[in-house]
């Protein structure tokens, strides 16, 4: 009887998984689905509760109505990328007045402080990490000063990323007039399956017109380093123009469904609002054409992942990618390898040792496959936290998304696709300046024990 009861529990658990996955339209990748099925089958008493807490991937079903054809010309790689994003329901590219990429941490801080100080009516900040350090306190003082000046200041913190932020630090901000909300607190309705979905977007928006964004969290290591430790190499940018209006809409969606001190419902957003029409950029001056690319549970499609596939299959000459964690799914790795095999110069920059040991173990197979296909691997000696991809002279991506399965398929992320030649060249120069001097690395063949360990880490840690 105990054996029969056990099998009944296994079958019931698998039925819960199958029904909930189908009814909610999760559309998991095969490897992720297999990981869940095996975990529930082999460890049902652990696997089912884990699935109920972590199993949600999407809030939005793909549209069933026919998507109207895009106006973007598809006879060029750039036009094909734009058409792909418009086909997934994203707003078309807009022309912006100003885009500035930050060379290093001090430049990024100066731009952030300037943007915060420029806010006259409203200032909105979203970050995964608010550091409990000198820089976090500097940010707090700037926000308090704007609130004292009568500016409406809102700060959205991810409940996991900022778990080390002391409650006293938050209370001081609130006492100074700064509104602070937590995104998806862990103990709030954990059985809704959304605990695993974290807000990794980094945004600072002044008056809905100026945007600071990129890969940097608001902590010392992203700007000037800790003590004697050098700052992490990261990339961020400042933008002025219609794209900031769309980023404002994205922030507002998060804010309405996050948990504040008086919130009655901490439920996360079921879907992102349709992008509103932004005011056109001024006709005079340089036109920085760019497109906002949010990715995550509030998007029906895996927007950045699908854009990368489109761009890689159309790549002709050179692909550059910088990421702290490289654990791609099979389709993205195949696209990179095929590009390298057909003669495209594929360059990947990752830190020799990142701040996540499991990510370094899980990436090894993908690095070996890419190198075997002819890709060039450059290992940076320090921590690289930048997220950037450049494809030929047609597309540059910069923002918060890492090239790993968590960022690609689970987290709330945001990238910006840059199409203007000057902006693409600026990102290319930044990558070349920081990493072109690094020698190419040849991954070593692993031992059998290491190979098995890599597979287990990748399966267990990066599929669910």
From TrEMBL:
Gene Ontology biological-process entries: cardiolipin biosynthetic process
Residue ranges constituting the PLD phosphodiesterase domain according to the UniProt record: 195-222, 380-407
PROSITE patterns xref list: PLD
Gene Ontology molecular-function annotations: phosphatidyltransferase activity
Region described as Disordered: 254-299
Localization (cell): Cell membrane
Protein's name in the database: Phospholipase D-like domain-containing protein
């Amino acid at each position: 009887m105990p054996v029969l009861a056990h099998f009944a529990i296994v079958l019931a658990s698998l039925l819960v998984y199958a029904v909930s996955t189908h009814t909610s339209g999760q559309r998991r990748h095969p490897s992720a689905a297999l990981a869940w099925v095996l975990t529930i089958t082999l460890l049902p008493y652990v696997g089912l509760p884990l699935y109920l807490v972590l199993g949600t991937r999407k809030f939005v079903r793909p549209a069933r109505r026919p998507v109207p054809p895009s106006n973007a010309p598809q006879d060029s790689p750039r036009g094909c990328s734009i058409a792909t994003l418009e086909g997934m329901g994203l707003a078309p590219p807009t022309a912006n007045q100003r885009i500035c990429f930050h060379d290093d941490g001090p430049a990024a801080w100066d731009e952030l402080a300037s943007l915060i100080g420029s806010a006259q009516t409203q200032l909105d900040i979203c970050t995964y990490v608010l550091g409990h350090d000198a820089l976090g306190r500097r940010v707090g003082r700037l926000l308090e000063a704007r609130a004292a000046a009568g500016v409406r200041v809102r700060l959205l913190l991810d409940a996991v990323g900022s778990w080390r932020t002391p409650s006293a630090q938050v209370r001081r901000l609130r006492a100074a007039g700064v509104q602070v909300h937590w995104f998806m607190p862990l103990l709030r309705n954990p059985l809704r399956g959304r605990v695993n979905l974290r807000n990794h977007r980094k945004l600072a928006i002044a008056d809905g017109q100026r945007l600071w964004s990129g890969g940097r969290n608001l902590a010392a290591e992203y700007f000037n380093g800790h003590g004697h430790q050098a700052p992490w190499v990261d990339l961020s940018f400042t933008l002025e123009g219609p794209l900031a209006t769309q980023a404002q809409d994205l922030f507002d969606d998060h804010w309405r469904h996050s948990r504040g001190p008086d919130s009655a419902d901490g439920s996360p957003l079921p879907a992102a609002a349709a992008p509103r029409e932004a005011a056109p950029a001024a006709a005079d001056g340089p036109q920085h054409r760019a497109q906002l690319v949010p990715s995550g549970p509030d998007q029906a499609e895996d927007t950045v992942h699908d854009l990368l596939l489109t761009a890689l299959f159309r790549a002709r000459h050179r692909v550059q990618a910088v990421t702290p964690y490289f654990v791609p799914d099979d389709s993205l790795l195949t696209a990179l390898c095929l590009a390298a095999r057909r003669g495209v110069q594929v360059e990947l920059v990752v830190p020799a040792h990142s701040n996540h040991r499991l990510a370094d173990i899980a990436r090894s197979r993908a690095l070996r496959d890419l190198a075997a296909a002819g890709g060039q691997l450059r290992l940076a000696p320090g921590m690289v936290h930048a997220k950037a991809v450049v494809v030929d002279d047609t597309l540059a991506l910069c923002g918060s998304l890492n090239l790993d399965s968590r960022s690609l398929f689970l987290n709330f992320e945001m990238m910006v696709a840059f199409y203007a030649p000057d902006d693409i060249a600026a990102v290319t120069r930044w990558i070349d300046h920081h990493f072109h001097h690094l020698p190419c690395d040849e991954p070593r063949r692993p031992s059998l024990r290491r190979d098995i360990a890599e597979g287990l880490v990748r399966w267990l840690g990066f599929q669910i």
